[in-house]
Amino acid sequence: MKATLDPQLIAERIESLKAGIIGGLSVCFAFAIASLLNTFVLAKYFQVLISLQSDLNWHLWMSCAVATFSGLLFGVTYRYIIRSDPNPQLKAGGVLAFGLVRGLTQIELGWNSISTIWPFLVLAGESLLWFAFAAIALDITIQLRWVKPFSSV
């Protein structure tokens, strides 16, 4: 019980929460931009991608909530992955891990559907971009000292 009231532990948890909120908001913003791009550009000009068009309905809101929660988990995890280490492979590895898990699931769904796989490849690429966007936002906030990196000591 005493360990949960440790001020240093509480401070680390608050920093992780801040990183999670920034990651979640970043992915939510990237999701909104991608949805608008899918609806007004890709679905309009590429017939094979017509299934990417989305209306403002509960399905879109649920997708946004899932993406935001994924971003929150990414933000917390990314903070622990990079620590105070400037290693670019760690940063890219975190982005690829989250992006590929989500993206490859989209591709697998496409293989199992009767329609073309192209929309699912676009969604997989979007997943990678979402988490790259969140990583950039987190790197900026860490540089601005809005979020403290996880101390490895």
Can you summarize this structure?
The protein has 153 residues and is mainly α.
Structural descriptors:
mainly alpha, 153 residues, elongated, 75% helix, 4 helices
Q: What is the mean pLDDT?
A: 88
How many angstroms does the end-to-end distance come to?
22 Å
The radius of gyration computed from the alpha-carbon positions, rounded to a whole number of angstroms, is 18 Å
The proportion of strand residues reads under 5%
Point out poorly predicted stretches.
Answer: none
Q: Based on DSSP secondary structure assignment, what is the total number of beta strands?
A: 0
Helix and strand sequence? HHHH
Helix content: over 70%
Largest sheet: none
Global structural class: mainly alpha
Overall body shape: elongated
Count of individual helical segments: 4
Verbal overview:
- By secondary structure, this protein is mostly helical.
- Helices cover 75% and strands 0% of the residues.
- It is built from four helices and no strands.
- The mean pLDDT is 88.
Secondary structure topology:
Elements: H1 7-45, H2 58-82, H3 88-112, H4 118-143
Helix pairs in contact: 1-2, 1-4, 2-3, 2-4, 3-4
